[in-house]
Amino acid sequence: MYSARESVNTSLSEMLRTAGFSDVGSFSQDLMTHSELSLPANAAGVIFDIGQCVDPEAVITRIQTVIPRDIWCCVVGDSDSITLAQSFSRQGIFYFNLKAQSEALIAAATAGTLAHSPRNTVCISVLGCKGGIGNTQIAWQLAQQMVQRRSMPTLFIQGLTGSHDLDLLIGKKLVQDITPVNKHLDAMQLDAESLPDLKQNTYDKYNFVLFEETINASSKETLRQLVENTTCLILVLDRSMASVRIVHTITGILDSLNRSQSTPRRLILCLSDSRPVMPGMLSIEELQSLLERQLDIVFPYKKSTGLPAFKLRKSLSPIDLLTQRVLGAPAPASSRFLIRLTQKS
To answer: Sorted alphabetically, which InterPro entries does this protein's record hold (predicted)?
Structure first.
């Protein structure tokens, strides 16, 4: 039981013990403000108190990135909004009003901790808007960072038009079957541009599936399938009009889906300077004007290798900033400085 309110921790812990739960832990932590949660190793279920919070998307993202799928989870709060409860329910998370639904909460906890978690796998698609701009390296670095920070089962999938040099990065030959990389990370290659059906039993064990693909030649039907089945979209672009057109296509599909569906999807734009910035190339100001939105992360050119730089110095690492955004943490002020730093190019 996690709540910043001592009274809630005390009352719900007593109710759970009365219902037969012998090992109930309570923690004075707020889900949205604590960077790390004290999750016991033997936890079977978790209850979060979100108080008066009415922003389900932020809470859902946080839960998806800190709670393993095999642990049952529910949320309690002060709101009695049906719309709020439905937003959580669509993601396999129960929401209960503290005042009116205490008995339903205990019944759900009793049933839920004995059953498989209904929560969906979090799908993160890293999509290159042009070939040769370091998309595979960015995606692979992101997968490694996520595993290091969360230690949750993660699957890296490379699509048909990826760089096909992932085997060199991980030092193992990849086939269509899943290949173990380390304790929490597996990898595989597909012979298709589209995402596999993540509801299949094959993917039940994974909290995160990270899909990497280059989409500059993909059909609109393929792009729509990718957007529709992705929780977090990361578009990697360069300073070309071709990349701008791809981003506009994706955002158009995203806007259309958001109007017809209530499933939240996040979009992160990354500029990857894989070669020196030359006169005549689009500046960051021009890119943002054409895109009609801000860039979120900038990977500057690194002279020694000609590939995007993943480390300038510890406080300004673009891949660290991207990982924080994917995992739901707010982007620090240093990311804005990083964009200003590259605007001189």
So the answer is: P-loop_NTPase (IPR027417)
